[in-house]
Amino acid sequence: MGSTRGKRRSSGGTLARIVRAATVEFAEKGFDGARVEAIAKRAGVNKAALYYHVGNKKALYERVILNVVGAAAVRLDEKLSGTSRADEMLRTYVRVLMQTFDEHPEMPRIIMREMASGGSHLPEAFLKGVSGILDRLAKILDAGRKEGVFEEVMPLVVHLMVVGAAAISRHMPARLKSMLRAASHLGGTGGERLMGEVAGEIERLVIKAVSASKARPGG
Amino acid sequence: MGSTRGKRRSSGGTLARIVRAATVEFAEKGFDGARVEAIAKRAGVNKAALYYHVGNKKALYERVILNVVGAAAVRLDEKLSGTSRADEMLRTYVRVLMQTFDEHPEMPRIIMREMASGGSHLPEAFLKGVSGILDRLAKILDAGRKEGVFEEVMPLVVHLMVVGAAAISRHMPARLKSMLRAASHLGGTGGERLMGEVAGEIERLVIKAVSASKARPGG
Amino acid sequence: MGSTRGKRRSSGGTLARIVRAATVEFAEKGFDGARVEAIAKRAGVNKAALYYHVGNKKALYERVILNVVGAAAVRLDEKLSGTSRADEMLRTYVRVLMQTFDEHPEMPRIIMREMASGGSHLPEAFLKGVSGILDRLAKILDAGRKEGVFEEVMPLVVHLMVVGAAAISRHMPARLKSMLRAASHLGGTGGERLMGEVAGEIERLVIKAVSASKARPGG
Amino acid sequence: MGSTRGKRRSSGGTLARIVRAATVEFAEKGFDGARVEAIAKRAGVNKAALYYHVGNKKALYERVILNVVGAAAVRLDEKLSGTSRADEMLRTYVRVLMQTFDEHPEMPRIIMREMASGGSHLPEAFLKGVSGILDRLAKILDAGRKEGVFEEVMPLVVHLMVVGAAAISRHMPARLKSMLRAASHLGGTGGERLMGEVAGEIERLVIKAVSASKARPGG
DNA sequence: AATGAATGAGGTTTCATTCAT
DNA sequence: AATGAATGAAACCTCATTCAT
């Protein structure tokens, strides 16, 4: 009589294991490329068991998506509650997204694919999730404007810059990465910055783009 | 007599029609989701003819990718040749990317998917193409720093911000778009800016992020 | 304390409920079309419980068949015991069959399917049951001939006419029924007879077909 | 070169062979019991080819049904055109049905199963076909009444008696048949009639049931 | 250059049945 | 007596690819 169950392979309930396995597989191969068989194997169950628990491939995919967006929203709320200054909050916003992408490396991949497919597989809840995250960003930017530290910008554009850069940088094809390192596009003219610094750079640039500036650049 | 043939449906040679059809299908569904049958139908030929012309699915995909990256690089070179001031060039850089994405809506989709999949389907030439585009950006930024209008930044990050925001915004799921409009995340506090302005906003923010600033914001 | 248990859903023991549910499902879908899961659900138990009680699908089917044929034979004996004139008995025979089909609408369906399948699923007992019913009919016809009211006919043919017409008419696809009503094949030349009269018509025609006639029709 | 094709196994085009094979399989096993694999094997093609030609199992089934009902209607019209007396036509009606069932032994089985299932698989065309056949019967009965040889009866009931008896007798389970022979239900009291005579008996009884009689039997 | 037909391998899903509790 | 979970086998169907013409 163990505490909860804990006897099958790996930890967590069967369903949890299936969803976890599916998240990886879907991230690697996309919805169409993913194989139910492979997910089952990764989860240590057989196909029939998988179907018993999740119904079908699409339903499984939706579960995965929900999990993934949910994680970001929750984490964001947790971290934001500790700060009050707008620029701090924006920094947090960027960091949390990057960090979430780091800890759930499947997330950016899945999100990018979904965007690319025009969201044909997307459950309504995913859209709500994204919209919720944007809400938080909008409030931060608004607060910043009232504090006088930000100027008026479109929240969506800021969000897309962060997500775009973060997602792509977190998930650059290995071969591309090595070519870039060779050509030293990762650093500035003479720099030697590491990939890890990309995160910081994104944060810095976003803050700067958004900040109220006395000197307007260009035409 | 017509230039080449001019009897089959639509314009262009059979091969060209196949590649065009494939570009659309691959963009919509991704490599695994795309169906050879569907491509053939779109091109107005039958599967056997398609195989006669392109060999197999993967080879067709590579042709598509090459086409797509090629278009951006060529266009970039054309437009850049007309300007010399660094901030103008950066503006051009952003505009050309956005415009290319507009005119070849399949491009951002395909690129995002490739990034997501870790580039497993990618031909070497694609990487070279992207790297070439980055080269141009690096030179622009470098020039700007020498002119004193830009500060030192990582070219890759700038590129990712542009591509990320551009790609995603050009290709946002319709449903998401309408939710956002409802929640007015597209405009600022009281604004009512249209989707079309997103392009301008990206341009503006990127320039600002990169520009040499006297007043450093935040911490 | 109830008679046997009296705590589960619906009336009757679990086994009885399962058999009843199975009867309906098998009638609607046939042996191959029926789903063990569906039967269990209808019975308000789960699959494992069903297996505990009945062994397997085929065994369950046999139970159902036996139940169904048994009901007709028993009822026939009850009703026949009250009459002695041959034509009365024949009428009773027809009525009992029709009535049984009415009250156990699964019966005709199951019987027809079994006939169609060549009786591959049939337990021996089913054949004995049918044979027993035919025995009774043969005796009635024989008695009628001795009374001089019937002429010599093949009992099987009479039985098949009754069962065929009764079974089919009791179980005509709804759509067919409505088409027929529209085309007024249900009534005579100008008639407007209702579906319910079909039973009476069968009875009438059978009696007439079997009766000793002075005037032979046709060539 | 051969006249049309004639090189694959068996005669007729591939599609024809598939439909023929399907007719047999569906008759033997019913829709749910039939296996696509088995049909393909019987037809001498592989599953993929079968799907190429017919789309899916249900579509194949509908083709079969249509074929089967079509055959009866066509044959009926052919034979009826040669006669004019109502009683002759009715005899023809019965004979054609019986004969069609003999030559297409799958027909009665399929029809019975369809009736049993409540016509859930039935394409509209099947119902129209059956309705068309009934139309012809109705006209025959009507003509007979005008000639004074038939009395008013419900066409549907007559049809069901014929089809019921014919279908069932043509397709009685072998084991049942032998039990009946043993119990001599096939013959009258002392008779020794053969199975083959069942057809004649049906014909005779139907005519008698329908004929205008001077002496009404029973109460 | 183009086509209808065919194919093998494999994909998703279903189902009767059993196991551990 | 009853259950949720698991399983192997097999069913239906799809797809990239090739063949004969």
Alpha carbon gyration radius of chain A: 20 Å
Q: Briefly note the structural class of the backbone of chain A.
A: mainly alpha
Which architecture of the largest domain in chain A per CATH? Answer: Orthogonal Bundle
Overall, the morphology of chain A is globular
Instruction: Work out the largest interface and the residue count of each chain.
Output: C-D, 81 and 84 residues
Major β-sheet of chain A, in short? Answer: none
Given as residue ranges, the uncertain stretches of chain A (5+ residues, pLDDT < 50) are: 1-8, 188-194, 215-219
Work out the helix count of chain A: 10
Number of E-type strands of chain A: 0
Mean pLDDT of chain A, as a whole number?
A: 80
Please bin the fraction of helical residues of chain A. 55-70%
**CATH superfamily placement of the largest domain in chain A:** Tetracycline Repressor, domain 2
Q: Order of SSEs of chain A, N→C?
A: HHHHHHHHHH
Query: How far is it from the N-terminal to the C-terminal residue of chain A, by CA?
Result: 73 Å
CATH domain topology of the largest domain in chain A: Tetracycline Repressor, domain 2
Q: What is the oligomer described by this structure?
A: homotetramer
Count of structural domains of chain A: 2
> Beta fraction of the residues of chain A?
under 5%
